[in-house]
Amino acid sequence: MTHFYPIGTANTPWTAANKTQWFESQSIKRSYLKEVLEPINQLSDIYTVEQYGALPIDAVRYPLMVLKSKNWINDLPTILITGGVHGYETSGVQGALLFAKQSAQHYESLFNFVIVPCVSPWGYEVVNRWNPNAIDPNRSFYTDSPSEESAYLMDMVAALSTEVYGHFDLHETTDSDETEFRPALAARDGKEYEAGMIPDGFYTVDNSEAPCDALQKAIIDSVREVTHIAPADHNNQIIGSDVVQEGVIRYPLKALSLCAGLSGARFCTTTEVYPDSPKVDSNNCNLAQVAAIEGALKYLSKQM
To answer: Worst-scoring range by mean pLDDT, 86-95, 194-203, 291-300?
Structure first.
């Protein structure tokens, strides 16, 4: 079906002028300072707080921040947690902060933590999937990335003094994926928009290049205690991908240049919370992200 997005011409890729028009249509809807930076700085007594970059659109307003275990022990495996790669996916950001504040300390004798609560702060403020240049950061984790958000994160991870053992990338699948973001993607790329279905519930994306069924199951079982798991559709799929076990699909993370594949961690997952369900609220969504992380950590602690 053809979807006439308000920017651009149907079946014609966007020009630079179209991208500028899109950028100028965005507006600030919430505060990165109040909702992310201040909570990060309040954790400075238990984490080392570091700036690893800044967005060129406004380096003062959008510093890129990471929390690292203050009591770093070189012999422990390192866990990378990322949220807000897509800025509009709120529980990815707030769930990472909640885990850092309330739960990480229970595991500090087992793991070192590197926590990036908000990879895309401009996207967080304007509640959008893309960065200011109409680029999806979560398709941009490759050499010479055009996404500053992705490039800075890759450089920070590469500079760590250790390999990443586990990487948990916290996301959401929202109704706005179908009402706004996928239509915008089709318009930007000059393609026809094909409507999809939004799954009602939590699911994960495993790495098809190095799958770990047991890790994903541990995550699903943990989250099940907090919120409902997304069912498969009539084709036994979730968002067009085959369900390999309850609530789990697979993508080739590295080949698709996705965040969860950037570190090459043996154990990785992308979490997907559904915040638009009538069965949940924002607190429940944040708790689901924490439950996903804890389920993964409990599984990994048994492998050591």
So the answer is: 194-203
